[in-house]
Amino acid sequence: MTGREMGSSGEIWVIAEQRGGKVAEVSLELLGKGRKLSRELDLTLSSVLLGDGVERAADELVFHGAEKVYLFEEERLGYYQGDAYARLLTDIAREHGPEIILIGATEIGRELAPRVAARLGTGLTAHCIDLHIDEVDGTPRLVHMVPGWGGNLVMHVVCSEKRPQIVTVKPGILPKPERNEDNKGEIVRVKPRLRADDFSRMETVEVVEETAEGIPLEPAEIVVCAGWGMNALGDLSKAKELAGVIGGVVAGTRPATDRGWVGEDQMIGQSGRSVRPRLFISLGASGAMHYTTGFTGSQVILAVDKNPQAPIFQVADIGIVGDLGEVLPCLIEELKKTG
User: Fold this and answer.
1) Alpha-carbon distance 249 to 321, whole Å?
2) Which of 120, 123, 233, 303 is geometrically suited to a Cys-Cys bond with 316, CB 3.0 to 4.6 A?
3) Within-domain flag for 211
4) CA–CA distance, 119 with 85 (Å, rounded to integer)
5) How confident is residue 171, by pLDDT bands cut at 50, 70 and 90?
6) What is the three-class DSSP state of 63?
7) Same domain? 236 vs 176
8) What is the rounded end-to-end Cα distance, in angstroms, of the chain?
9) Do 27 and 139 reside in the same domain of the chain?
């Protein structure tokens, strides 16, 4: 049985998030995964975009793999409106019956996804770290991979009955597809039938972007992440020095964040940020799964820890067993020599 036979419209949807007309990176990442899934299930990859003056954003979705874009444009949709967005998405989902709906697990997505799922009377699998197709009772099914039990296990979730299947995926976990302006796709304009009660409880009137200090984590090519083991050194001065020498950005684990060494926006892991740098350096972190899920897509992982049995060495490409107080100064000195 193919995916087309299981769904009514034969489509996978990516709900595209945009701010100021720019598509969120996670939406493009989901298009890459959606493209792979759509081919395996013989489905059409579509996207749904809501906003004001976002036609160029719709083109970007096509350039990144969407075969069809349902476009809602209206001045009052320029900023995210929870009630309006949820109702419009629910209505169009009921009309077209997608098989799968993918949503980024951002601040907006975490609020929007359960609203839509509840209205549609379907299930929601949140904070997935990957998706793949597997045979279940002789039928190809979408498998949702979610960290569980404190991040120590990965659970495989299958939604065998309810449709559409709604899934949220954290930003930074999936690779972004290549942009190709030769891609062709259909832009389907949908008239937003807004109502007064869409804005009766709450309305977004302005969005103020916070300015992050230093370089943002997600686009950084080198990330130096401090774990609880840095406590023996008293602070993050050596981690910051290492990052400065190699042009990296400093991040931290949950214990480092709780200690106040780094801010919440610099925390790596299941409840923090996910990154895919060229080089990820883990300093003094044992390597629990809720931490490692935040950087598994890194090209090269270098880990330093004094415990040779630490789980971090199971995912590291390069491992150094030793005391941070001894290893870091030597590492920094050698890197300075290379220039």
Assistant:
1) 23
2) 303
3) no
4) 12
5) confident
6) helix
7) no
8) 58
9) yes
Residue with tokens 């109702």: 87
In angstroms, the CA 321 to CA 307 distance is 7
- The number of distinct structural domains making up the chain is 2
Domain that holds residue 267: 222-338
- Tell me the H-state helices in the chain: 3-6, 25-41, 55-63, 82-96, 107-120, 237-246, 254-259, 289-292, 312-315, 324-338
Q: What is the 3-state secondary structure (H, E, C) of 246-287?
A: HCCEEEECHHHHHHCCCCHHHEECCCCECCCCCEEEEECCCC
Q: Do 252 and 178 sit in the same domain of this protein?
A: no
Residues 180 and 42 in one domain: yes
Neighbours of 291 (CB within 10 A): 26
Q: Which residues contact 100 (CB under 8 A, 6 or more apart)?
A: 7, 12, 13, 34, 37, 43, 142, 164, 165, 166, 167
Residue with tokens 């990052």: 243
Reported as a single tens digit per residue, the pLDDT across 266-306 is 898 877 888 889 999 999 998 887 788 888 888 999 999 99
